[in-house]
Design goal:
Elements: E1 3-7, E2 10-13, E3 23-28, E4 31-36, E5 41-46, H1 50-62, H2 64-75
Antiparallel strand pairs: 1-2, 2-3, 3-4, 4-5
Amino acid sequence: MPTVFILLGFVFKFYSNEHNPIHIHVLKGGAKAKYSIFPVKMIDNNGFKPSELKIIESIIEENQEVIAEHWNRYFNKDR
């Protein structure tokens, strides 16, 4: 499970057997969420508060290209 980055205690990662479209999993404590990257949209949430989801979404929006680069490098794909 490659970790893309950790910011403010939120761990942003994807699983090694992922599928398109590009998406990211976010973990912190026992909470987890899944977001699509293009466009940034929550797919699933299990335990994050609305205020945390706003922070997560903001981080993803600011790092869309970084996440996509990691995804493409790991899976050897072009966006």
